[in-house]
Amino acid sequence: MSLDLFDLSGCVAVVMGGTSGIGRALAIGLAEAGADVIATGRRENLVDEVATSIEKLGRKSLRRAADASDRTAIDAFRDAVLDTFGRTDILINAAGQTFRKPTIDVSEHEWSGLMDVNLTGMLRACQSFYQPLAESGRGRGINIASLTSYL
Fold first, then answer.
1. Helix (H) / strand (E) containing 37
2. Does residue 148 lie in a domain region?
3. Per-residue burial over 38-72, b = 16 or more CB atoms within 10 Å of its CB, e = otherwise
4. Is there a domain that residue 7 lies in?
5. Cα(85)–Cα(38) distance, rounded to whole angstroms?
6. CA distances (Å), origin 47, targets 27, 36, 64
7. What mean pLDDT is predicted for residues 10-30?
8. Which of the residues 33, 38, 63, 120 could staple to 8 if both were Cys, CB 3.0 to 4.6 A apart?
9. Tens digits of per-residue pLDDT, 85-96?
């Protein structure tokens, strides 16, 4: 089987929540397939680690932290991506958080914060990157949800 089907050379991919877990694995996989990849998250040290891994694969990246719960931060991140790369072809929303405790012990404040990142953050990123994805002529958005998100 030819891997040409998976060739992403020349594509620019953004991975929200790309600094750990599934998001990080996807960011590295996209770079291995030939895409320039910008993986972001809240922690700058992890953003730097992933960018270094992407660059070691011969791909370009951008070191810019962004919080999925902050619309202004997402828009500023989008602007930095467009200023650096000129377009976005792929958006993957993998940002998420969870609580490792029974649902009965989760406060409403904690729940609201979780929903703000896991659901509303996804909406924010889709809205923010919609225009550049549409303008690329081949833009794609992929939203990732966790199987552990049950009550």
1. strand 36-40
2. no
3. bbbbbeeebbebbbebbeeeebebbbbbbbbbbbe
4. yes
5. 10
6. 11, 15, 7
7. 96
8. 33
9. 999 999 999 998
pTM for the structure as a whole: 0.91
Residue at token pair 């406060």: 107
Domain that residue 59 falls in: 3-143
Contact between 91 and 125 (Cβ < 8 Å): yes
Residue 149 counted as domain residue: no
CATH number of domain containing 132: 3.40.50.720
Structural domains in the chain (count): 1
Residue 85 lies in a domain: yes
Which residues are CB-contacts of 96 (< 8 A; sequence separation ≥ 6)?
Answer: 17, 117, 118, 144, 145, 146, 149
